[in-house]
Design goal:
The chain is α+β, with helices and mostly antiparallel strands. The protein has nine helices and eleven strands. The protein has two domains: about 160 residues, no CATH class; about 100 residues, GIY-YIG endonuclease (3-Layer(aba) Sandwich).
Length: about 290
């Protein structure tokens, strides 16, 4: 299905007046948040919704006049993938201090969200997800007209063609091959469920790269949910119990897999593989972050 229908046609068919719909194409400027926003939309809806419930003064005025918000995420250049149609059930004024106490905002802050800028108070919108077009969540892709910097607009004043309706959701792509997998520390708690299943089955040797110092740490994982369990330990503590990682800023850590081993590999053999990687990558102190 391509170039036949427009978003306004779909809205009208669902009994929604396009002149009551504000359309947004979310594409955060914050690098970390931009990476995981589709994951949040797919599996952490309350955090995703928190992201779109606060805006600058100009968008506040527009959204306060809308009855619905059609929410999209930037997919490719000039395209956007549908997340949902939300009813605008009003708003309330919140102070900047209270803004950071709202559930979801602290997590967004860790991903780089700056929150209200240069204002003591702003509007917090009550956005209620509807069932309208919900079967197309993650599947409906539209062409975004005009310049991409214009990330919001009234539906009835624009032609927003349907580019495609996919069979599977695009919000959570298949997990990359283990040799291509690279995950930032801030992404660890947000890894999609389908990825977690794979990581819980994999054991082997992993690498942590510290962007700040340029140094590396090599570790191994076997048993106890394997790589998933070990990496989630870093997500909780920031250092995983490793002496030379303590005191470093974990937001600079990047995780990847150096080598997978068989599920029945004995622990001494896993440790031997780990030691080999430490030698080859020179990760023992003082050149690296391994202290043994």
């Amino acid at each position: 299905m391509s170039g036949v229908f427009e978003l306004n046609d779909l809205l009208a068919k669902a009994g929604i007046r396009p002149d009551e719909v504000l359309v947004m194409r979310h594409r955060p400027t914050e690098r970390e948040l931009r990476k995981v926003l589709p994951w949040l939309a797919a599996e952490r809806h309350s955090v995703f919704n928190a992201y779109q419930q606060n805006h600058g003064p100009v968008v506040e005025k527009a959204l306060s006049r809308a009855r619905y918000l059609a929410s999209f995420i930037g997919h490719e250049a000039g395209r956007a993938v549908f997340v949902g149609l939300y009813g605008v059930a009003g708003s309330k004024t919140v102070s900047t201090r209270d803004f950071w106490k709202i559930p979801g905002n602290a997590e967004l802050r860790s991903l780089g969200t700056r929150g209200p800028q240069e204002r003591d108070h702003s509007q917090w919108f009550d956005l209620v997800q509807t069932d309208v077009m919900s079967v197309w969540k993650g599947r409906l892709v539209v062409q975004w007209p005009g310049i991409e910097r214009s990330w919001w607009r009234w539906s009835d004043r624009n032609r927003i063609p349907v580019h495609a309706i996919h069979e599977e959701s695009l919000l959570v792509p298949p997990m990359p091959d283990w040799q291509s997998l690279v995950i930032d520390w801030s992404q660890l708690p947000l890894v999609p469920a389908s990825w977690r299943v794979m990581l819980s089955q994999w054991r082997g040797v992993y690498l942590i790269f510290d962007r700040a110092s340029g140094k590396r740490y090599v570790g191994s994982a076997a048993g106890g949910e394997n790589l998933l369990g070990r990496w989630l330990n870093y997500a909780d503590s920031g250092h995983g119990g490793n002496r030379l990682l303590r005191g470093l800023d974990p937001t600079n850590f990047v995780f990847s897999i150096l080598q997978r081993v068989s599920p029945d590999t004995e622990m001494p053999d896993v440790v031997a593989v780990e030691s080999s990687w430490k030698e080859r990558l020179h990760t023992r102190a003082p050149n690296g972050l391994n202290d043994n």
